[in-house]
Amino acid sequence: MNTVLNQLRREIESSLHGLNAEQTQLRPSTPSKWSTQQIIEHLLLTYSGAEMALNARLAKRRPTLAKPTAHQRIQQFAVCNFGYFPHGRSAPETVTPAPTTHQLSGAELIAAIEDHLSRLDLLCNECEQLFGKTRFAAHNVLGPLSVNQWRRFQLIHGRHHLKQIDAIRKAHNV
Q1: What is the reported pLDDT for 71?
Q2: Whose CA, among 8, 37, 65, 167, lies 20 to 30 Å from 22?
Q3: Is the pTM value of this prediction over 0.90?
């Protein structure tokens, strides 16, 4: 697995290690905030979205014709180069987790993450072979990204949410 995605996998695994299915339902003191399981489900939904975007470009065998706007370039630079992920933005509906109906343990969530990150890694490798360093597939907020930018975005976005999981664990002493 690529070093960036492997780093993300390790950090998520560490964050979820030892949590049982009841503990993954813990949430911050604000009841409207996501539980640990919902945070991971959000990440899984974003990985599925990335997989669809990359698969679409691979099916067409050509990069997107879209060009990033000046605002998108600034956002890309902040996220991918500085590791800055803005706070307070609501997740798009397509990547908002549903209310939990089936509780999963940390180990089960780790297995789902590993599965998705493995598939995403394979797709990134295939896209890298076909498109090189070109911005080839568009993110819904950041615009067209290169393979390395896609990987870096996943890491920075994941870290943003891992801070939330760490805060939940500290608040509940787990």
Answers
A1: 97
A2: 8
A3: yes
pLDDT of 6-17, one tens digit each? 999 999 999 999
Three-class secondary structure assignment of the chain: CCHHHHHHHHHHHHHHCCCCCCHHHCCCCCCCCCCHHHHHHHHHHHHHHHHHHHHHHHHHCCCCCCCCCHHHHHHHHHHHHCCCCCCCCCCCHHHCCCCCCCCCCHHHHHHHHHHHHHHHHHHHHHHHHHHCCCCCEEECCCEEECHHHHHHHHHHHHHHHHHHHHHHHHHHCC
Instruction: Give dist(CA 31, CA 82) in Å, integer.
Output: 32
Q: How far apart are the C-alpha atoms of 12 and 110, rounded to whole Å?
A: 7
Confidence band of 87 (pLDDT split at 50, 70, 90): confident
Whether the Cβ atoms of residue 94 and residue 49 lie closer than 8 Å to each other: yes
Q: Which pLDDT value is given to residue 61?
A: 97
Short-list 9, 50, 63, CA closest to 150: 50
